[in-house]
Structures are given as structure tokens and as C-alpha cells.
């Protein structure tokens, strides 16, 4: 079980580094076991068909086969990356794009993606 959790954690880190926006974690059920909950990577149990938001700005849901999670923070695209920088606010799960020399000034963003 620990090996499975470790491999899932490594896999989810790899997926995050690859800029994937959604991922799926299989339940640890044994054949014939019809569990009515899912356990996340932190070991927290969630009821079947439930949804929740994580501290990493993901929305997750528990299904019979496992947990599905997707990023909910829109990522700024098409902005002047030399003049401007994106800043992530973990509390609001949102980005702002501001000038590097004057962070009080926002920059134009041509589009947002998930």
C-alpha cells in the first residue's frame, strides 16, 4: 500500500510538472470490494459521489473507480513576459499579471487557459 501511495505521489508530481490540468487516481479496492469512499493522497476518506477543493486549487470528485482532480485556476496567456510577471494567489486560486518594475500596475492579458 505504501508503495502504491509513493508511486501515485511521484506520478502526480510528474503530471504537475508536465502542466497537466487533470489527473485520475485509482481506488485501492481489492476485487469484489464495493467501497463507498475514496482515499486521497493525504489519506483523507471522501464519500462516493462527493466533490471537494484541495489546498492546491484543484476540484476533485470521488467515483467508484477512483478520484478525478482538475486544476481550477485559470492561467494567464499571451502577455508580455519580459515586461510583466504572473503572481499566483493560493487563497483565491487566481493569477494576476503585473509589471515587473511596478507591481502596482497590471498588464494586459490576451487570454486565459486551464
Automatic annotation (TrEMBL):
Cellular component terms (Gene Ontology): extracellular region
Location in the cell: Secreted
Alphabetic keyword roster: Disulfide bond, Secreted, Signal
Protein species of origin: Rousettus aegyptiacus
Keyword check for Signal: yes
Family: Belongs to the beta-microseminoprotein family.
Domain of life of the source: Eukaryota
Name under which the protein is recorded: Beta-microseminoprotein
Amino acid at each position: 500500500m505504501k508503495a502504491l501511495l509513493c508511486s501515485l505521489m511521484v506520478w502526480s508530481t510528474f503530471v504537475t510538472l508536465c502542466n497537466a490540468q487533470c489527473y485520475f487516481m485509482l481506488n485501492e479496492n481489492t476485487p469484489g470490494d464495493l467501497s463507498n469512499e475514496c482515499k486521497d493522497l493525504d489519506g483523507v476518506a471522501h464519500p462516493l459521489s462527493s466533490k471537494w477543493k484541495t489546498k492546491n486549487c484543484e476540484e476533485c470528485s470521488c467515483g467508484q473507480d477512483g478520484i478525478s482532480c482538475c486544476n481550477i485556476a485559470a492561467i494567464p496567456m499571451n502577455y508580455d513576459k519580459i515586461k510583466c510577471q504572473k503572481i499566483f494567489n493560493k487563497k483565491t486560486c487566481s493569477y494576476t499579471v503585473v509589471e515587473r518594475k511596478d507591481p502596482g500596475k497590471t498588464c494586459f492579458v490576451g487570454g486565459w487557459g486551464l
